[in-house]
Amino acid sequence: MQQNDRLRMPAEWEPRELTLMSWPVRAETWLEGLAEANDGYAEVANAISGFEKLVMVARRRPDKDGRVPLAEAKQRLASDIDIWDLPHDDSWLRDNGPTFVLGDGGERAACTWRFNAWGRKYQPYDADQALAPRILERLGVHRIDAPFVLEGGSIHSDGEGTILTTRECLLNPNRNPNLTQTDIEEYLRIYLDAKSFIWLDRGLYGDETDGHVDNLACFVRPGLIAMQVSGAQGPDALSCAANLEILGTARDASGRKPEVVTIEAPPPRSCQGETLTLSYINFYPVTGGLIVPVFGRDGDGETKKADDRALGILGELYPGRKLHPVDGMRIIKGGGNVHCITQQVPLPQKKA
User: Fold this and answer.
1) What domain count does the chain have?
2) What is the pLDDT of residues 191-209, one digit of tens each?
3) Is 271 a catalytic residue?
4) Is 351 a member of any domain?
5) Does the predicted model carry a pTM greater than 0.85?
């Protein structure tokens, strides 16, 4: 890779080598404990391994209850999943992991962002801050350190230079209080070769990440965006209306007005008095498939109907891919879902 190469952030549907995840370790994150979290992560990881290679980060150091994450991961995961013993503080690799980019000639590199645990919401986070460089060293991928705070779940790329994000997150003073929207756009131009930005207003209600876009909206392909909406009485009704208005006038890097397909949010659910931020958009595309969180497996009839509607729409949006539903309730009790706990590693695209 040459020093002046532009570094394009590829779309998630481009060819990939593998998926990265990290095993749950921070008990206080999970409303109903690490045992259920382990069940959820194992289900997702084993599902992904049926489509493509998966690497799970799981530290050897015991948690505060004496459990050894590395041993638990080995017990729960399919035999073809690689497990890497690396130190980490939490299990949301989308956010503290590397963001991979491709150079002009298709060479692969990765950006590491500064990570402050979503505005210093959890302590400590020093091992998570150091995890991306350790992963890149293990992969043998060229590393580029960016000088500002960013989480991978706060941005989405169409692979052609358009970045989808939210003001609620990227302009939150608990991330980069001295940076303006113009400053952040300039950084994203430098590090991701971004050419156009679609700034949605707010993310979903109750999202402790301060409005990550991967709960709200994503590119299905260039020129097509899927977005979750709520009914007129839902907590996201006003913000959804505002975001749809923004998308109605948006233009991508190619000058197109994106088509928008909406997916209705599931009925509200709570756990221990806390409203859960349920999202069908927080799915993860894999090679030949789609890993989709659903929320009605416990027999909630209305939620099951919402699950079926969402799966039907996603099946139409992704023809030719096998839909693999997983129990999103196990993961959302930690604050995120399938997309939040995964990170794709694209294949290099060497050009002749």
Assistant:
1) 1
2) 999 999 999 999 999 999 9
3) no
4) no
5) yes
